[in-house]
Amino acid sequence: MARILVVDDATTVRMYYRDVLEEAGFAVEEAVNGFEGLEKAVAESFDLILVDVNMPKMDGYAFLRQGRTMSELQVVPAVMISTESAAQDRERAYAAGANLYLVKPVRPEVLTEVATVMAGVVP
Amino acid sequence: MALVRKHPAAAPAPVQGDPREALEGATAAERREAAHRLAADPDAVDPLADRLAREADKSVREAILLALGRIGTEAAVERLFDLLGSEDVWLRNAAIETLAEMDAAVIGALDRALSDPDSDRRIFAVNILVSLRHPAAADYARRALAEDDHVNVVAASIDVLAEIGTPEMIPEIEAAAARFPDAPFLTYAARAASRRIA
């Protein structure tokens, strides 16, 4: 079963991603900020990471920049999902190490399709 | 015969100089110390905030944010709210965390922040509400819930009310989600919030 790490400080967003992705057959692990995300990503293996931008303690950009320097996270696909839709936000996400940038709110069918394609495995 | 000291032992040298000048000093330690000293000066908001905008050292930035939070005046709150539009994500998040600790001082600035033309700034302002220990916080979230036309601002408001709302707010939450029929996440968030506060 493909494993997805969701890094977002909003409880409802994490619950939503979990419900949608588990319904589609993925296993989901959660982290509430970048620090916790890095800890979990190093301790466990994931097929995909969904990460928010604005979080306390460590934001999504810092999470990706640090993660991409670590052997455990260098090649794990990462989708940055943010409320910010400006072109420079998208560019900044890719520069930090994101493989895809989505703007919230994400429809369930889009989330499932992106997870299936990006994780590269059958859920 | 008692010994008389001709030259009394030197006391520790007090910190000298104008902390405003030291805030522009060459070393981070000097600037950090200046920020700590200026935390007691309500007129130091502008020099602190101006320095923060170009300060690269994280420990000095933290000291300045702490100082602005301790000063806690309307001017300090306004300068911190200005940072919600910063391109520097660390600074933006640090400003949110500082504002969230300032409680009543922040309330006066929320009208402007919740009317900001930038939806991201409005989202940040709404996110501050959840940590404010102020009875008006829920009312501001309800206002954004009812009036804002941006889906993510309404989503943030629902998230806030899931934490600080009360059962009589459930119809307002459901009505807000119904304004965005093409956003299934809002329906989900409204149901989740209603379950939590019911």
CATH superfamily annotation of chain A? Response regulator
Helix content of chain A: 40-55%
The average pLDDT of chain A is: 93
Shape descriptor of chain A reads globular
Residue share in helices of chain B?
55-70%
Low-confidence stretches of chain B: 1-6, 8-14
From the spread of the alpha carbons, the general shape of chain B counts as: elongated
**Class from helix and strand fractions of chain A:** alpha/beta
**If strands are numbered along the chain, what order do they take across the biggest sheet of chain A?**
2-1-3-4-5
Tell me the strand percentage band of chain B: under 5%
**Number of helices, counting only DSSP H or I runs of 4 residues or more of chain B:** 12
Q: Which strand-content bin applies to the residues of chain A?
A: 15-25%
User: Rg of chain B to the nearest angstrom?
Assistant: 23 Å
CATH class of chain A: Alpha Beta
Overall pLDDT level of chain B: 89
Structural class of chain B: mainly alpha
For the report, how would you describe the main beta sheet of chain A? 5 strands, parallel
- SSE order of chain B, one letter for each helix or strand: HHHHHHHHHHHH
Number of DSSP-assigned strands of chain A: 5
The oligomeric state of the chains shown is heterodimer
